């Protein structure tokens, strides 16, 4: 679909794109495992189900990125995980929120590489999904915050 033959060397822009694509696959691989772990610690089934839905999106993105990499290089990539999982649910939510926000920008930058229009669409869609994921994680974080505060005379007390 994307390939006119394996890329062996190519231009520096193609090389840069492939390096960034590896970074994206590493991040997806970590997110897939991290969100599975996070879902196990979710305080209720509503949050657990949403986290597992987000994880499905991450799996889909990983498969798309992997297909692109293999199509462009003729090789498979083995992802690397060098991050540790947070030790609490709230820390995991916070890390996930920040990561999803940063990843949104990263994917938008990747969509600017002038490779193929189909690849641009994959990264733009992934960026939109990441932004949506960030909103959910922020919602869960704010729910924790609101439970530990109250409102009196239009002022919030924590």
UniProtKB/TrEMBL annotation:
It comes from Evansella vedderi. CDD domains: Ferritin_like. Residues 92-145 form the Rubrerythrin diiron-binding domain. InterPro entries: Ferritin-like (IPR012347), Ferritin-like_SF (IPR009078), Rr_diiron-bd_dom (IPR003251). The lineage of its organism: Bacteria, Bacillati, Bacillota, Bacilli, Bacillales. This is Rubrerythrin. Pfam families: Rubrerythrin (PF02915).
């Amino acid at each position: 679909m994307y390939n006119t033959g394996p890329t062996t060397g190519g231009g520096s822009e193609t090389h840069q794109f492939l390096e960034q694509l590896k970074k994206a696959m590493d991040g997806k691989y970590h997110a897939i495992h991290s969100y599975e772990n996070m879902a196990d610690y979710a305080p209720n089934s509503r949050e657990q189900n949403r986290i597992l839905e987000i994880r499905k999106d991450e799996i889909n993105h990983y498969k798309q990125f992997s297909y692109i990499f293999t199509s462009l290089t003729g090789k498979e990539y083995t992802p690397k995980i060098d991050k540790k999982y947070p030790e609490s649910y709230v820390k995991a939510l916070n890390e996930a929120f920040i990561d999803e926000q940063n990843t949104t920008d990263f994917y938008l930058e990747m969509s600017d590489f002038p490779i193929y229009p189909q690849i641009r669409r994959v990264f733009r869609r992934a960026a939109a999904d990441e932004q949506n994921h960030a909103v959910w994680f922020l919602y869960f974080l704010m729910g924790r915050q609101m439970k530990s505060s109250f409102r009196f005379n239009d002022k919030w007390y924590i």
